[in-house]
Design goal:
- With 287 residues, the chain is mainly alpha-helical.
- Among the domains are: 1-64, Leucine-rich Repeat Variant, CATH 1.25.10.10; 83-161, Leucine-rich Repeat Variant (Alpha Horseshoe), CATH 1.25.10.10.
- 67% of the residues lie in helices and 0% in strands.
- It contains 18 helices and no strands.
- The longest helix has 16 residues, at 2-17.
- The termini are far apart.
- The mean pLDDT is 92.
């Protein structure tokens, strides 16, 4: 009983510390209060989401994200409109970590925020929550001026609906950023959609070899005899990694039309390509 009294007294002192003029004291109180199990603590920490100090706000939000209380969702949604950039993007981040679909509509609103970090974390959050209602907003974000936002939008779309929207991702194969083009090709490969086939073939001529590697990966995932000719073409690519991956993909397909070309690859200047060609030919029982 005495220990309970001491514990309650300690908790009361910590709750009082939340109103201390020193933000360091307020942060320490928040971090210590997470060790107590009492409804009053949640109420008090929610109140700190209005704190003028960002460190206090962050500490409170970081603790609250671990509780299942609808009031926390509402409070974090409210801070999505805070005038501080860091508070807005962290609010989006924490809402994504919580994963409650009630926050989706509000997060969609900030995917057009003036701050890129907010838009990045909004896209991430929508992907983690996984609600179909976010698809159109994420498609729009594929045209965002910020490269990272576009990449996160592609990733989020894949998390929400791996089989669509193919048309939007095909458009991203022509993005100005090589990393976006590469990611779009990879995700399109995972959809295994033949609707993207012609566009992926075109990507085999991309100026960046990483994008071309991604295109080979996508064709490998899609499979089928229609991929044989473009993969044979990729065996002549200037970059060894593209040639090596093409050889591996042709081995998986097992189409006899590839045999002669794989034999030619045995003379490739690069050892990795030659090894891939040997491995592929083994599947035709050549060796």
């Amino acid at each position: 009983m005495e220990n309970e009294t001491v514990s309650e007294q300690n908790m009361k002192e910590l709750l009082d510390g939340l109103d201390n003029n020193d933000w360091i004291v307020r942060v320490k109180a928040i971090l210590d209060l997470k060790n107590y199990d009492d409804p009053k603590i949640i109420d008090a920490l929610i109140g700190k989401l209005n704190d003028e100090n960002e460190n206090v706000w962050l500490s409170a939000a970081n603790v609250l994200k671990n509780y299942k209380d609808p009031r926390i969702i509402d409070s974090l949604v409210n801070t999505l409109s805070d005038n501080r950039d860091e508070v807005r993007w962290r609010s989006a981040y924490f809402l994504g970590e919580i994963g409650d679909k009630r926050a989706v509509e509000a997060i969609i609103e900030v995917i057009n925020d003036q701050n890129a970090e907010v838009r990045i974390n909004a896209a991430k959050a929508l992907g983690k929550i996984g609600d179909d209602n976010a698809i159109n907003a994420l498609i729009t974000a594929l045209d965002d001026e910020d490269t990272v936002v576009r990449k996160e939008a592609i990733t989020a779309l894949n998390l929400i609906s791996p089989q669509k929207p193919v048309d939007a991702l095909v458009k991203s194969l022509n993005d100005s950023d090589k990393n976006v083009r590469s990611l779009a090709a990879i995700i399109l490969g995972k959809t295994k959609s033949v609707d993207a086939f012609d566009d992926l073939i075109g990507t085999l001529d991309d100026e960046d070899h990483i994008v071309r590697v991604s295109a080979v990966y996508a064709l490998d995932k899609i499979g089928g005899n229609q991929t044989v000719k473009p993969l044979i073409k990729a065996l002549k690519d200037p970059h060894w990694e593209v040639r090596s991956d093409a050889a591996n993909a042709l081995g998986k397909l097992g189409n006899d039309d590839a045999v002669v070309h794989l034999m030619e690859a045995l003379k490739d200047e690069n050892a990795f390509v030659r090894k891939s060609a040997v491995k592929a030919l083994e599947k035709f029982n050549i060796f």
